[in-house]
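The instructor's notes for this session suggest beginning with a concrete chain rather than abstract definitions. Hand out the sequence below and ask the class to guess, before any prediction is shown, which regions might be ordered.
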Amino acid sequence: MKKILLFVFLGISFISFSQQKSDFWDNVRFGGGFTLGFGSQTTVGISPSAIYDFNAQFSAGIALNYTYFNDDDFFRSTIVGGSFIGLFSPLREIQLSTEFEYMNVSRNFEDPIFEDDNYWQPAVFFGIGYVSNNFTVGIRYNVLHDDEKSIYADALVPFVRFYF
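After discussion, reveal the predicted structure:
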């Protein structure tokens, strides 16, 4: 009898829970960014992401990152990884961000004098951006920047984000 009551209770709970509309997906926005560069060097990158809006000021989310870089005379590089991002908007037009990024870098050199390389590169960014509707443009600073291993030429990195 206890088992029957337990199954009835669980069944009623499941039915009443499944009929309630969840707000979670209403607060999720998808977007990301992309990179294209052609010339003596080729860069192609994509970084889809999703963020959850806790309220009008705070958001947090995740992103995947893929970048292909080719310098015909020097090396090819494939960069794959992900990141966690936190966003704070003290004003509607201003967005402060913090981001932890962890990327696997694979470099293959054209000249045999250099040794191919494969390593993990962390980055911690603090940024500020200008927001216009679903579009944000700004600059971020990598506090872990390493001149030799970093995939970024400088600790200051401009960014463009969009979320829908």
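Then share the key points. The first helix runs from residue 2 to 19. The helical segments are 2-19.
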